[in-house]
Amino acid sequence: MVGQIIILNGAPRSGKSSIARAIQESFDGVWINLGVDVYEQATPARYQPGIGLRPGGERPDLESVVPGLYAALYESIAAHSRLGLNVVADVGHHDAYSKPLNCLVDCARRLAGLPVLLVGVRCPIEIIMERRAASAADKGYVTASADDPAPLPVRLWQEEVHRPGVYDLEVDTSLLNSAQCADIIREKLILENSNSMAF
């Protein structure tokens, strides 16, 4: 039996990582987190942020490695699933590089034939800014100022990460906490897999 795959796609600080942890803690079975934070730790410093490269085409010198990094990540996700392990991956897909890289299409192709649930994790920009401010000292996040309450990098994430925005399910972390989001995801999986898998 192959493992279930859940892809959580959203902007930084939208709550993806917290949902991934909630899934690992509350779902039955082994759930491996292969998201952007985990993958960035494995990426050499000179190529960071790797797949976390933000929209806007500001680092074309790094863009040549991004398709290969995404391909390797998704091949790993697929391999885990084929070995019967469940995978939750929190990512921030976009194609707003200096030129289109079409990573999302390639990633989807690599998961063809496997049980995948693509979840859009949404959160209003005002809440994103509050969360960025709360963890700015630890993470070095771009934060608001009196002149710019939502800086361009943050706006670009909000605009680009949900293109084309075709999901199996969407959750809004300004309305639901991570456990509640995980519960909604579980319900969706039960509906889709009621005869083959228990969560």
Low-pLDDT stretches are none
Task: Output the CATH class name.
Answer: Alpha Beta
Helix content: 40-55%
Shape from CA axes?
globular
Number of helices: 9
> What is the CATH third-level topology name?
Rossmann fold
How far apart the termini lie comes to 14 Å
Query: Which radius of gyration do the C-alpha atoms yield?
Result: 17 Å
The tally of domains stands at 1
Give the integer mean of the pLDDT values: 91
The CATH superfamily label reads: P-loop containing nucleotide triphosphate hydrolases
Q: Tell me the β content.
A: 5-15%
CATH architectural name: 3-Layer(aba) Sandwich
What is the number of E strands?
Answer: 5
> Biggest β-sheet, characterized?
5 strands, parallel
Give, in order, the helices and strands. Answer: EHEHHHEHEHHHEH
Structural class estimated from helices and strands: alpha/beta
Question: Topology of this protein?
Answer:
Blueprint: E1 5-9, H1 16-26, E2 31-33, H2 36-42, H3 60-63, H4 66-82, E3 86-91, H5 103-110, E4 116-122, H6 125-134, H7 136-139, H8 152-160, E5 169-172, H9 178-193
Q: How would you describe this structure to a colleague?
A:
This protein is of the alpha/beta class. The protein has one domain: Rossmann fold, CATH 3.40.50. The protein is built from nine helices and five strands; from the N terminus they run βαβαααβαβαααβα. It has a five-stranded parallel β-sheet, with helices on both faces. α1 (16-26) crosses α9 and α4 (66-82) packs parallel to α5 (103-110). The chain is globular and about 50 Å long. The relative contact order is 0.22. The model has no long low-confidence stretch (mean pLDDT 91).
